[in-house]
Amino acid sequence: MTHLQKPVTADRSVVERAQERLTRRNEDRFAEAERQGLLLAAKVRTTALCIVMIWVAIDTQNRGASFLYDISQVAIFAVLGILQYFSAKHSANASVMNYVFVAIDCALLAFLSSTPNPFAEYDLPPAILMNGSQFTYFYLFLMQAAFSFRPSLVLWCGFCIVTARTGMLVWFVNQPGAYTNLDLSERTVEDLLMARSDPNFIFLGFWVQEIIVCLLVTAGLAALVRRSRWLVESRIRTERSRANLARYFSPNVVDRLSSAEDSFGEAREQDVAVMFVDIIGFTTMCENDAPGDVVDFLRGYHDRLGKAVFENGGTLDKYLGDGLMATFGTPEPSENDASNALQCAFDMLEALSIWNRDRNAEGVLPVRIGIGIHFGPVISGDIGNRRRLEYSVIGDTVNVASRLEQLSRKLNASLVVSDLLIKAISPTDKVGQTLIKRLVPAGVQDLRGRRGKIGVWIYQPK
């Protein structure tokens, strides 16, 4: 099996489908974030309305049925909040219903604020109802909308508030006896002060001020929500990058790479341990299996081998069908790269031994592998073009490691390592020296397609 892989450039349709899947996943994440935010908002709204209800009970001068009417208005919004909670939790069309609920909230508050208490002993003039403090309750709806990750919902809420408040103005201005500063014959300060003392006078400046402040608050909250959404997207991209790195690097290397500010793909020369692994007799094993069974088998196989690579600080360079290539010492070298590679090989053999016991119990063929490891200089970095880059290593060390893996069949060994790897293990490395004792020297061997011979060590399970 050839260890070099040619970069495969996906056609446009494949790229577009991948982008569509990624977009759908992001949308699903945001939909869940919005749902959780709206669930929290409904709870906060209910708590806020309970506080408002207590204040109304303290502040109102009404008694009896009139008092109950004031309290019931707040209770209606509490019920709407509960409906919004269950809609966000269970409804499949919760995103659409959010806009509907916002419109209902604003329209209902405008209606109740424009309608006098039918049980009260007195009727308030239009100006007092228009300029009452109930307008501030509209901001509770803005607060609730801001809990979502959808700026459009915040903007929609601001639009509904402006529309509702403007509708209230039109309603009150058209009431009998009501007039505004536009109706004054003289607009002097004295005339304005005199009109302000009339309970039927509606000062348009208050309405303009309310609308401007509402629009500014709405725009600010929408910008804040948009920024929050961007931060979530940034976090998703970061986690996706970490997940992609985790497919190739051990967790401690992922942490170092994800926190690095400069590129780790700049080509450089360094000494690393290179490992190649391949299944012996893979074609014979799977010639009668269905494609789905082969894929399941390879997933179990790669999971076990990949785990051994990561647990020993290795980098998974690439999967090669029924084999893999791993490096130890990339992107940053360490003193134990050679012994880590050797420990990884024995961990792989142990993992497959356990797996083979299960396979034997199921009546299927055991898995036999050949492993080749070499230590020496390589060129590491991003390889490819701007459309497709792959972090990898190249050089004679890579070719030798591949040939050692192929040599395992000739020597009837599960593991073949070069003499240079043995020499790279420090004499003070007790773990590495213990591992070396499990190997036996196999002399100097020829490698196919390469001039010169190389000293090798092998491991043959009993």
What would you say this structure looks like, in words?
- The protein is an alpha+beta fold and 462 residues long.
- The chain folds into two domains: 12-243, no CATH class; 263-459, Nucleotide cyclase, GGDEF domain (Alpha-Beta Plaits).
- Helices cover 59% and strands 15% of the residues.
- The chain is built from 15 helices and ten strands.
- It has helices at 12-59, 65-90, 94-114, 126-130, 138-146, 151-173, 189-196, 204-246, 251-259, 282-286, 291-311, 337-362, 396-410, 419-424, 430-436; strands at 179-180, 201-202, 268-279, 315-320, 323-328, 369-385, 388-394, 415-418, 440-446, 453-459.
- Strands 3, 4, 5, 6, 7, 8, 9 and 10 form an eight-stranded mixed beta sheet that branches. A two-stranded parallel ribbon has the order 1-2.
- α2 (65-90) packs antiparallel against α3 (94-114) and α12 crosses α15.
- The protein is elongated, with a radius of gyration of 37 Å.
- Residues 1-12 have low confidence and may be disordered.
* Approximate strand percentage: 15-25%
Q: If you compute it from the alpha carbons, what radius of gyration comes out, rounded to the nearest whole angstrom?
A: 37 Å
Helix/strand order: HHHHHHEHEHHEHHEEHEEHEHHEE
How many distinct domains? 2
- Count, helices: 15
Q: Notable features of this structure?
A:
alpha+beta; Alpha-Beta Plaits; two-stranded parallel sheet; 15 helices; 10 strands; disordered N terminus
